[in-house]
Amino acid sequence: MASAAATKQSKDVPYHLVYWPGLPGRGEHIRLALEEAGASYTDTAHTEGCIADVLAFIQGSQPSDDINTPLCAPPILRHGDLILNQTPNILLYLGAQLNLVPDADQYPGGQYRVNGLALTALDGLSNEVHDCHHPISVGLYYEDQKVEGLRRTEDYVKTRLPKFLGYFERVLESKVSGDGPWLYAGQLTYADLVLFQCVDGVKFMFPKAVAKLQREGKFPRVFALHAAVKERPRIKAYLESPRRQQYSNGIYRYYEELDLEG
Amino acid sequence: MASAAATKQSKDVPYHLVYWPGLPGRGEHIRLALEEAGASYTDTAHTEGCIADVLAFIQGSQPSDDINTPLCAPPILRHGDLILNQTPNILLYLGAQLNLVPDADQYPGGQYRVNGLALTALDGLSNEVHDCHHPISVGLYYEDQKVEGLRRTEDYVKTRLPKFLGYFERVLESKVSGDGPWLYAGQLTYADLVLFQCVDGVKFMFPKAVAKLQREGKFPRVFALHAAVKERPRIKAYLESPRRQQYSNGIYRYYEELDLEG
């Protein structure tokens, strides 16, 4: 992607992720791309005073230069002079920088197909899951929207979860997925990493529903992709390291009353 | 953006939009980009039997080739051999094709900044608005989630709407917005068109809240951008034409009980 090269960032410049500590969150998609590529990066989640770093962007004192736009929310990636936010946007940039999209000459338009797959996974298996415990307001506690949360979760587990897993199963069955466990062009792209993290989070939040789907033999290719990403040598080492945050009060949370079978 | 050129689509090939009839919806963002650029395009919303065209993609009988991935939901854009979905993904492609992003040599990384702005507008001023009338399930009627809808809307109008309008006001105040009414680099990009449509929809759905904000002089640059897009010659002609769909039962709906002042 020549446009990424046009940002004049050297691949030797380390990446810097600005994100909340103590949960995987949307920042996790950025970490997985950097880890799979073996990229050199720092992560505010592991530095003291990191909440102030995040707030500086949200409240507008950062970025303080004349080339980057104000940013609304983390995750935020700094690479040299370039500062970006929005998870799928950062992934689009990293996909080109870290060769996590297919070669553009061999697969014309491939970066758009990968972007489309990542956007759909984030919509259906991350944003919609967050709304299961926060259907009314992100500004209220879960405890203040439990009734609505249960109602939304009942629908999510019954209709939305199988819809999106079914969509990705269909992609994996299609000819464009190619040989092997990946979504597109027979090679690992950042869309596979995004789907891995989404499925991983869903397994944590809805273990009963996922166990039932697996017992019934549903979506075998999606679960095989999850297992295949987990065994990538760099990802495996990362998941076992303290750099991997534990699930807590982020997107994917375990509440017994929301652990429905579907 | 060399990657767009690499799709080997000629700019002379007309674009084809696959979208539901009878509402602006997310397809409207695609239409506005095509209209502003004066591009040649067809739109299923104005063809007989278009619902079958949309369903063919959702149900998987389209795309029937070996190069495009299965697609989850409209809007869908076909350009020559390339078939894409996901609104921000289609806009990313069109931005490069139709010169609705700044020159990459002059503004390195500009396409990522524009993509980030568009994603944030779609998140905060379109997706979150849709959830005001559908907080529990897209599969249920509004009438079956009215109580929850009112509760969500109270929060949206009071906290989320000013948050996102405030964010874009901050972008427009920043140096990177440049001279004139636009978000980035002193020139119209597709992010301006996205923000226009979002503000336009919000004005339709929440006229009391928007009137109050305007009375109080809040977010003047955001409302000036809306007015400036509306006066672009091609957009003005489009908005007055039958190609522009009226608001109905889509993202932006008028329900008296949700028309709160905030």
UniProtKB/TrEMBL annotation, chains A, B:
InterPro entries associated with the record: Glutathione-S-Trfase_C-like, Glutathione-S-Trfase_C_sf, Glutathione_S-Trfase_N, GST_C, GST_superfamily, Thioredoxin-like_sf
Question: Which residue numbers delimit the GST C-terminal domain?
Answer: 107-248
Q: Which Pfam families match?
A: GST_C_3
SUPFAM superfamilies noted in UniProt: GST C-terminal domain-like (SSF47616), Thioredoxin-like (SSF52833)
- Bilayer-crossing residues are none
Q: Where would I find the GST N-terminal domain in this sequence?
A: 14-102
One annotated GO biological process: glutathione metabolic process
Molecular function GO labels: glutathione transferase activity
Please give the name of this protein. Answer: Glutathione S-transferase
